[in-house]
UniProtKB/TrEMBL annotation:
<protein>
    <recommendedName>
        <fullName>HAD family hydrolase</fullName>
    </recommendedName>
</protein>
<dbReference type="InterPro" id="IPR036412">
    <property type="entry name" value="HAD-like_sf"/>
</dbReference>
Length: 194
């Protein structure tokens, strides 16, 4: 099974670094203005009334289609289930609700601690690379939840921050080939035919 991250992998959410005049005066930086009306950015409303400015990665649907040619794909995110389902619907990512694993499932597994049974130790996790090389608790939680046995099962794609350039489009063949190679190596270990 292939598991794909949501934020900064398939979509970008706009967040103000300098949100108001007070912070602007403290930092000496200008207030961040949302890219309303710019190509690709959409206001996504939640049932609660909350609204976010979000953009789908230009190559997201093509990437998901390529992954789905290789096997079943689920969405695995540290965001809430409602957030993931709302983004899935807003951007036509094509995941059934049962194929979306959100923070609630990760939290429930965490509460079990050592009693948690790995969900898919043979799984492959697609994550965005971190530009600062930081240890990310959310990424660790996902790997622990699945029970991944090797760092090779973690495929890093370029991080997407919502700009017009999309490095994944150019690098897609390399990443899809890496996933395919993992699937083939796993099948050969299990005696399955590719």
């Amino acid at each position: 099974m292939i598991y794909c991250d949501l934020d900064e992998t398939l979509i970008a959410r706009w967040q103000a670094v300098i949100p108001n005049e007070f912070v602007a005066k403290l930092t000496g930086m200008p207030v961040c203005r949302p890219p309303v009306g710019e190509s690709g950015w959409e206001i996504v409303a939640f049932p609660s009334g909350r609204k976010l400015l979000v953009r789908r990665r230009p190559s997201a649907l093509e990437f998901l289609a390529a992954l789905r040619q290789l096997g079943s794909v689920k969405l695995l995110t540290d965001a809430t289930q409602q957030y993931a389902e709302t983004m899935n619907a807003a951007f036509g990512l094509g995941f059934e609700p049962s194929a979306i694993i959100g923070r609630e499932q990760l939290d429930a597994a965490g509460e079990l601690g050592q009693a948690h049974s790995p969900v898919d130790p043979e799984g492959i996790l697609i994550e965005n690379e971190d530009p600062y090389g930081e240890f990310r608790v959310a990424r660790w939680r996902k790997g622990w939840y699945l029970g991944l046995r090797s760092s090779e099962q973690l495929i890093y794609v370029p991080r997407y921050d919502g700009d017009d350039s999309d490095r994944l489009a150019a690098e897609m063949p390399k990443h899809v080939a890496a996933v395919a190679a993992l699937i083939l190596s796993d099948d050969s270990k299990c005696g399955h035919q590719a």
